[in-house]
Amino acid sequence: MSETRPDYTSQGKYARLIPTLADSKKEERATSILLAALMSVYEFRKAMLQSINLRVGARTKLEAWTEVVFKDETLAKKKGPDDRPDGLIVLDTGRKKWHALIEAKVGSETVGEEQLLKYIKQAKEHGIDAVITITNQFVALPTHHPVSIPKKNLRSVEIFHWSWTYIVTMAQLLLTQDKIESQDQRFILHEVVKYLEDPSSGKTGFTSMNAEWKTVVQSAFNNSKLNKNSDEVLKTVSSWHQEQRELCLQMWPLVGEKVEVKLPRTHRNDPKQRLTDDCDKLASEQLLSSTIAIPNAAADLLVTVDIARKSITCSMRLEAPKDKKSSSAKINWLTRQLPTSEKGPAIRVKAIRKGQAMDTDKPLEEVRQNPVILDAENTDSLPVYFEVFTSLDLGGKFSGNRVFIEHLEKIVPDFYRYAGQYLKAWVAPAPRVKHVEEDPEEETEAQLTKPDDD
């Protein structure tokens, strides 16, 4: 490592894994440790930078500095300490260099629009490619940002965001999957995770819905019309978006794989449109929902929050087997997949039929004992889909900002643990070889034309 700062800087400390900082400087300490870990552990920097669409090869070098001051700021002396970014990273591929400013916050501190715009301006002035913010706020994707910035300000500078929980979870996943080749680097990353997981580091998870949550719940329960443009709806949906990401990050160590919020392309490319659409859904349907994609699972896990009914539902939908000719055979195919357990949430099975035919649902154990209990009256229509689900009615507890999150973060992993992981999608059987009978006349003719043996 050269430790030579870029020419446009006048000050900056090389990022240290063990920084000599006062205990009160949590923000600076966490930033230095993180940047040093990115420099030290190849697989970690590769994974983190890939999350913001940067390819990192084995020969790619990364250097990082903290408490960076630009030369023009030193000369002008017109900028205050709030304009000093927490870090700077330089990624050198050998052919070109990519630079990014780092701004980190711990605890409940966040990066505001005004501050972020100043860093974007600084980046433009010095030819820096991006600004990366790190806080305890959650976003669906690192390419999304919790602060809405007009596109005209982002023509030459990109903005990205990592939550501290995302960073720790990414590191934990690499350690769990044994993806780090160097034993020394593995030890470094393990120690970094232990530090960031300690409450004293300033890392926190999403533990509470917004302050307006109770008002929104009461309005929905009273069947009062919600305004999709109101402050309480916007803040509720924003909180829900953060909680969706938190749920996925909690599922990562449970399944040992990356678990993601599944978004349509329009929402992946445009976070503002996602916010607008979800606010409209909350106002018109009084629902919050999330589709969670789990690698190699039989189906996506759908989480639905019905605010008017004060309930949380987790479900997975499977196509009913097409090679079974009776309703009971199709149902038995499903119930055989699910183990008998007295633990976990109460699981129910819904049979979904075509057209106007009625859907039916019953508790799993009743369906297991008597498959025909799912038959619908006045129709011979067979199920085309099965939905395995659990619902939790919270009643008065639902409006509690923290209680709601606590129950949600228990029911989702529990549903997958006791039901979702056992489900298997139906696969059509391979076609059988057809037996073709030979024509007796052709066989006789072939024998007549066969030459005699000498």
TrEMBL record:
Q: Which domain of life is it from?
A: Bacteria
Quick one: where's region Disordered? 434-454
Q: What is this protein called?
A: Stress response protein SCP2
Q: Which organism is it from?
A: Halomonas alkaliantarctica
